[in-house]
Specification:
Length: 353
Amino acid sequence: MSESRPLRTIPVVNLDTGLEVQVKVADRNAEQFAARFKKVAKERRKWAKKNDVYCYRVYDSDLPDFAVAIDRYDGVWESQGMSALVVAEYQAPRDVDPYEAEDRLYDAMDIAAATLGIPRDLVFAKTRRHERGGGQYVDQQKDAFVMYTEEAGNVFEIDLGSYLDTGIFLDHRDTRIMVGEMAQGTRFLNLFSYTGTCTVHAAVGGAVSTTTVDMSQTYLNWAKRNMELNGCTGEEHTYVRTDAMNWLRQVSAAGKNKYDLVFVDPPTFSNSKTMGKATWSVQRDHVEMLTMVSKLLAPGGKAVFSCNLRTFKPDNEELERRGIHLEDISAGTIPHDFQRNPRIHKCYILTVE
């Protein structure tokens, strides 16, 4: 915190005990944040308990001065009884004093920890900064902190320390549950799979086979561990390390692989070194990608396509010309804890005429 701004103490109510805890803060609006956080945290905790939700968003920039997202993760299995928070700071405008922004971040972390009764050393900070193309990055990687959480009865490994994201995208919770419900008896394909959380839902939901494709061996290994945690270890589950677009070009051209259900959740933008000189933009490249996906669908097959570009607009005219129909189901896939920001992602069902 800035040495030029004196600390003061405010009372914060611990929701577990109902007792007041004294918290040192620097920002003049810390009391306002504490009151708002207590209100939303109380509602979210009640909702999570009622719906057996173990990881969820508690707060998302409700107050302009406290532009942070706060997510809670409750542990299961080897992490039973453990709870942790991830506080992601959105990049402050240039006209905001960086010391003032830092004070607010630490105030938010301290108040959230005290309100929820979570040890301060289990509160992890992230900084989201925008880069060209709409992507995001974090300033530096930190030490790993692995724990296990649950979603719809499935156990997942998460890492709260190493990366900007933890291994599970919370805003896609309802989408993954939907995919699991659609998966019975299907040959399932997961493109841009990340840590394979959607593959787990499909496999547990009764998919007869799964194919998980990602460019990162780190994430593929993580996906395998997630599958193993949920008893999905047979030869019917395959993992492919490659650039998803190159793989799509090769497989769709061959015309051999057919899938009944595809989940495709590409990044907004990528210029990864493993892509060579190529770049990826979901707005620019989605027609080519979805055309190739459509060629992999068996008769009657469906694809679930999602992305996090808030300004994304599908080229429906060109897609329809190619015999591809997109049904916008975004509104029905926004979880309760993300409804304050319904533009958090886009989601569509793709079918072929």
